[in-house]
Write a structure and sequence with these properties.
single chain; 104 residues; mainly alpha; two-stranded antiparallel ribbon; 8% strand; coiled coil; Heat shock factor-binding protein 1-like protein 1
């Protein structure tokens, strides 16, 4: 069975990842029915080790994304709370000056 070394995740400047594995990676990167260049389309089988490594890398990426999303959600909630407090404070100031307050 023909197969290369385990997949290596290569991180680029923007943090995006690509999987550098020659023909196996090229075969996975293409969609069903798409044909690649002649050198990419060597017909090398995708090995179990490669797939395991790929899925492990994807699982780690997903965990990192979940952490990032959770942090963004906390930040957004804090921003919304802060904005809400500012609006209430502005309405309280208007009421104390005897001005009308708009209904939202």
């Amino acid at each position: 069975m023909c197969g290369g070394p385990e997949a290596r995740a290569v991180t680029h400047k923007r943090g995006a990842r690509r999987y550098d594995q020659g023909p196996e990676a090229a075969a996975l990167a293409r969609g069903p029915g798409e044909k690649g260049d002649a050198e990419e389309d060597s017909g090398a089988p995708v090995t179990k080790g490669f797939l395991t490594s790929l899925f492990d890398s994807l699982r780690m990426d997903l965990q990192e994304l979940r952490k990032d999303i959770s942090q963004e959600m906390r930040d957004l909630r804090a921003d919304i709370t802060s904005l809400g407090e500012r609006v209430l404070s502005m309405e309280d100031n208007k009421i104390s000056r005897g001005e009308e307050v708009e209904q939202l």
